[in-house]
Amino acid sequence: MTCIAAYLYRNGKRQEGDVYNNPPTDLQPGDFVWIGLLEPTAEEMTALQKTYNLHPLAVADSRVLRQLPKVDVFGDQLFVIAKTAHLENDRIYYGQTAIFVGEQHIITVRQGSARMHSDLRAHLEDSPQLLKHGPDYVLYAILDFIVNGYVPTVQTIEDSVLDMERHMLSSFLGRDEIARLFHLRRQLILFQRILGPMSEVTGRLATVELPVVNEKSHPFFKDVQDHVKRVETTVEGLREIMISVFEASNLFEQQRQGDITRKLAAWAAILAVPTAIAGIYGMNFDNMPELHLTYGYYYVLCVIVILCSILYWRFKKSGWL
């Protein structure tokens, strides 16, 4: 069933009745209909178009999932598209909520959105004084509900990045972790392409005189815009942290390789002493006076040990060993 809920609200209170199949014809000032649909068919949208005089272009856009957030004006009605987002297996999946707003109706069409509006509707119905503001307040509540859904997504990515940052400080990032870091960064870049238009939509609703939107509702939409901007700031900060984690990981790796290189060079220098001395006395010459010394062997060993010890002490003091 594509119709999730459809009710008439009078004085902020829900009225019983099937307004989806039997649209009300005796609406009074202040009354409005709120219909929630999930992936409706073309026939269902055509029926709503005729009943509520929806613009054909808006109806067509509501069924196309690959839309960016926007707000359009069609006569005395508004058409708003907002994008939902949820994180699953390190990937952000997007849904779409198209909203038709008139003086006495608000219709939401969800496509690919995992978050239902049931809790939101129940929360608003518990506050009839809020619902008395009309469809524009419901529009604000839906947009605020969608934007608040961005926060868990960003927080989950933030926790993952901070975990990688802590891991990077204690050890080194592996190939899989670096690949995951760049994957999350790409997800945030794509997410920013949604946040920008969402900020423009809420900004326009908060500042521009539009049909259906009462001037008293502008502060509410301004509040939603502030939420979007906070999410944008967090996402931008996360991208910078990701770059810093990657650069710091590279620096630590270079430092580790430098330490290994210095240690190898130090041991090579130490081993070069006995190698050089052994090479000299290993030459096949008969006229080498030291070869006939009674304690020549022990003298050479002492010299080797002393020189190697001096080199070891110097390298140790300089931090190479």
Automatic annotation (TrEMBL):
GO terms for cellular component: plasma membrane. InterPro entries: CorA_cytoplasmic_dom, CorA_TM1_TM2, MgTranspt_CorA/ZnTranspt_ZntB. It is found in: Cell membrane. It holds the Pfam family CorA. It catalyses: Mg(2+)(in) = Mg(2+)(out). The chain crosses the membrane at residues 264-283, 295-315. Keywords: Cell membrane, Ion transport, Magnesium, Membrane, Transmembrane, Transmembrane helix, Transport. One of its GO terms (molecular function) is magnesium ion transmembrane transporter activity. It is a multi-pass membrane protein. Belongs to the CorA metal ion transporter (MIT) (TC 1.A.35) family. Mediates influx of magnesium ions. Alternates between open and closed states. Activated by low cytoplasmic Mg(2+) levels. Inactive when cytoplasmic Mg(2+) levels are high. This is Magnesium transporter. It comes from Pseudochelatococcus contaminans.
